[in-house]
Amino acid sequence: MANAPQNSSTGITNTETSWHDHKQSAEKAVAAGRMDLAETNWLVALKLAEGFEKADKRYAFTLEKLAECYFKMGKLNRAEIFCEQVLAVYSNLYGKEHIDVACIAGNLAMICHALKNFRKAQKYYLTALEIKNRELGSDHPEVTKLRSNYADLLRMTNRENEADKLKTGAS
After folding, report:
1. How far are the Cα atoms of 40, 68, 82, 143 from residue 30, in angstroms, in the given order?
2. What is the pLDDT of residues 38-85, one digit of tens each?
3. Mean pLDDT rounded to a whole number for the chain
4. Cβ-contact 9, 39 below 8 angstroms
5. Any idea of the CA torsion for 8, 12, 14, 19, to the nearest 10 degrees?
6. 3-state SS string over 45-80?
C-alpha cells in the first residue's frame, strides 16, 4: 500500500478513505434493511482492505461483516466461507486460544449446524466451548448458550446420552 495516494496533511490514503466510506454505507444499508446494498458495499470494502497490511484489523472486520451480512440474508454457504476466513485471520493475529477466535468458532458452529454439516459444527462447538469455558467460566451465559446449542446438535445426531451428560456436567 506504499504507493497509494495520500493526503499529505493527514497521512490518510485514498484507499483508507474509500474503505471507510464503503463501511459507513454498508452499515447504513444494514440499518435500513437493505442487505443487497450492504453486501455490495462490504464487497468493495473487502477489495480495498485486501490492500492493507496483513495485520490490519480492518481486513478481518470486513470479512466478519460480510459473513454477518450473508447470514442475515440466509446465504449460509457464503457466510461459512467468510467466517472461516475470519477464523484464520483471528487465529494468526491473536493466537488460537483467544476469546475472539472462540466467538468466531461459535458463529461457524451455528452456521454449520444450520447447514446440517454436523461434523464440522461439532469441531467448532468444541473449540469455542474449550476457550470460552477457560476464559469466561462454565456458568457464563455465552458458555451456557453454546453448550445448549451443542446439546441440540448431539440430540439431532441421536446422541442423547452425550447431550444429557453435557447438560448435567454444567454447573
Report:
1. 11, 10, 18, 28
2. 999 999 999 999 998 878 889 999 999 999 999 999 999 999 999 999
3. 90
4. no
5. -170
6. HHHHHCCCCCCCHHHHHHHHHHHHHHHHHCCHHHHH
